[in-house]
Amino acid sequence: MVRRPFATVLVYLGVALFLVTTLAPILWLGVMSVSLPADLTDKPLSLIPKHIDLSHYARLFTFNANSLGEAFLMALRNSLLSSVGATVIALAVSVPAGWAFSRYRDGRVATVLYVILATYMTPAVALILPLYFLLSALGLLNNVLGLVIVYCSMLTPFTAWFIKAAFDAVPRELESAAAIDGASVFQTLRRVTLPYARAGVATAALFAILLAWDDFFYALLFTSNQNAKTLTVTIADFAAGRATDFGLVSAAGLLTALPPVLIAFVLQKSLVAGLTTGSVKG
To answer: Where are the transmembrane segments (predicted)?
Structure first.
């Protein structure tokens, strides 16, 4: 098919508009993170910093007692532990659950799946009191393990539904052939079904990490100091003073966005394959 010049121009304009609206905030954060405070208050505002200042990054990686660097690095540790830990537990539950939902399609199993999805769609504010009382009874308020439990309640329904969709695309004939060869259900799942659906599982893991990493609501309510505060809450604390250091906040924001970007870059092939799983049948 020959594309008309006008259509080609529209396509390039659309791509350019998408890139500008997507990358402009990130680029501006980068400019702010290396700008002097005086440059950010000049009128008219300059889009190019007069002097490159890397002191904000140095402060964030300086691990001194009661410093901003200590708060940032502790928050980085807490975010990694809570998001990765919750994702691992959610996948450990969701893989067998997703396989069961995919392979047993009677009315009762479907009802259970819809009930699980309903818990995922419940507004977060409605779950505050039950989760608070649960963490309080377990002594896990202001604790990374408590955040892991909270995030598991949020991630497990989503990952189970997503992985079920990935398992639906796996031909049942492959599992039947493995069963004829004497493989158990667990062996079939581990050696046949999971390798075939690994793109969907990897995509579910990526989205689960992002959901937990970007959470602010639960982390704000259930943590109170740097022993458990995550990056999102810590950055909000940086911006809560009377005189906000916008360069420091911008540097912290860029560094916070870096791990998810790296994970998405590594898993980009699995992400694309996982999102298109089940879209074509035949």
So the answer is: 9-31, 80-101, 113-134, 140-163, 196-213, 246-267
